[in-house]
Every structure is written in C-alpha cells, then in structure tokens.
Please model this.
Amino acid sequence: MTVEKHFVAIGTESYWSLCVTYIEGSAQNSTQLANNRRDRVDYREVLGEQDFTVYAQLRNLRKSLSEQEGVPAYALFTNEQLAEMVTRRVRSEAELAKIEGVGKARLEKYGDVFVQLLKTATASQTENRDAPTAN
Model:
C-alpha cells in the first residue's frame, strides 16, 4: 500500500490531493508480507542469563533517556546494538565505536553513560562469580 499526497495551491481554494494505492488480495498476501519483515530476536534465548540481565539494564537506560529527550528508543541504540555491547564486553567508547551504526554523534551524546553502565555491570558480574560460595 502507498499513499501519495500533494498540496494544490490555488489561493483561497487550495486543497490536499491524496492518492491511495493498494493491492487487492487475500489475507495470505498480508501474511507473506509480514513474514518478509525482519524476524524478531528473543535476546533472552540468545544471551546467557547474566548477559541478558545487563542487556535489560541497557534497555532500561535507553528507555529512560529516550523519554527524557522525547525520541523513540531505537533512535539512541537498536536492540541489536545493545546486545552487541554486552557480547563484546564493551568497556570504552573506542570499543563502542566499533559497533555498526554507532557513530560520532551517538558516542558524544550517549557513549559515556552506556559505557559506565557496562563497566559497572561487568564488575558486578565478576564479583558475583569470584565470591566464595557457602557449603
């Protein structure tokens, strides 16, 4: 389906012209279109339990910042980028810059806070892993 809109300027008689184009067909066509979209990834299954915990913290941080700025969450970082931050064990802005789609503007605006969370989470995981267990 496509929608074309054009403003026709004729002084006081100006108007918008709209043209909607669609393909007639069964529900099967819409199912095929839906299947062609990128498959969703369940990061709970892809990442280990500890990594998913860090990933969830990154998502919460992203949500908080996006709400403060009034922008969609994906405008900061995508879910895929967040997962890659976790799996690569990012601990610096230089490492963050190596992730596809993370450019200078994102680094300057969000890099420090995301790297800080990653460092804190990694340190916490290391402490939990190294802590002696009671018998």
Q: What stands out?
A: Helices lie at 27-36, 43-46, 49-69, 79-87, 93-97, 104-130. DSSP finds six helices and two strands in the chain. The two ends are 64 Å apart (CA to CA). The chain has two domains: 2-36, 43-130.
